[in-house]
Amino acid sequence: MLQEAKYPAAVFNIKSAVRWMRANADKYGIDPDKIAISGCSAGGQLALLVGLTNGVEAKEGNQGDLGFSSSIQAIVDLDGVVDFMAPLSLNLNRKADSPDVQWLGGTFYEKPEIWKDASPIFWANEKSCPILFVNSGFPRFHAGQDELIGMMKDWKIYTEVHKFDIQLHTFWLFNPWIDPTVNYINDFLIKVFNK
Asked: Distance between CA atoms of 189 and 43, rounded to whole angstroms?
C-alpha cells in the first residue's frame, strides 16, 4: 500500500488545524493561549513533532489560516516515538512496505536526514512547551525520552512521565489503564494551564 501523504504532510495538516482553531476561537470558546496537542503511538510522535517545532517556518506548510499561529502550549504523548535515531527505536532492517519506511519515503539507509528530521527530540529548544509522557512497557516507544527530559530540565521546562509496566502498546484503550491515563492527562493540563 502506497501512502498518499508522506512526511511532512501530516505536520502541515495538523498545524493548519491549529491555525483554524485560533481563527475560530471566539466562535467555539477556545482560549488561543492554552492549546494542547495529544496523540497515541504515531499520533504521539506527531504531537511531539508539531509541538516542538513551534515557530519553525519550514514545518508550517501553506494551508489554511496563515495569519494565525500554529503554536502549541502543551504536549501529551502516549507511547509515541521521541527519537527515530535512538538505538532502541531505530530498526535498520525495516522492510520497504513498513509504514514508517513508506511515510518517510525510504529506509534509514536511504534517507537518514529524513529520519532525523522526523525525530521530535532534534527540534526541542529552550522555548519548548511542557510535555506529558504516558508509556507502555515497550522501551522502543520511549527511546530517547530520558535525553529529551534531561534537555527540558536544563531549560527548566516542565515534564511529567507515567509508565504502565505492561507489554500492551494500546493500553489507553483498555481497562484498567483508561481511567488512570485520562486522570494523568487532566491533572497535567490543569497544572500547566492554571499557573
From this structure: 18
Q: What is the DSSP string of 152-171?
A: HHHTT--EEEEE--SS-TTG
3-state secondary structure of 135: strand
Whole-angstrom distance, CA of residue 14 vs CA of residue 134: 21
Contact 84, 118 (CB under 8 A): yes
Alpha helices in 60-121 (DSSP H): 99-104, 112-117
Structure confidence by residue, pLDDT tens digits, 3-56: 678 999 999 999 999 999 999 999 999 999 999 999 999 999 999 999 999 999
Q: Nearest Cα to 118, choosing from 89, 146, 147, 154?
A: 89
Q: Is 167 exposed, middle or buried (0-12, 13-18, 19+ CB in 10 A)?
A: exposed
Give the helix/strand (H/E) hosting 188: helix 178-193
CA distance 186 to 184: 6
Q: Indicate the helix (H) or strand (E) that contains 121.
A: none
The CA distance from 78 to 6, in Å, is 22
Number of neighbouring beta carbons within 10 Å of residue 148: 24
**How many Å is the Cα radius of gyration of the chain?**
17
Asked if residue 173 lies in contact with residue 79, where contact means CB atoms within 8 angstroms, the answer is no
Q: Is this structure's pTM higher than 0.90?
A: yes
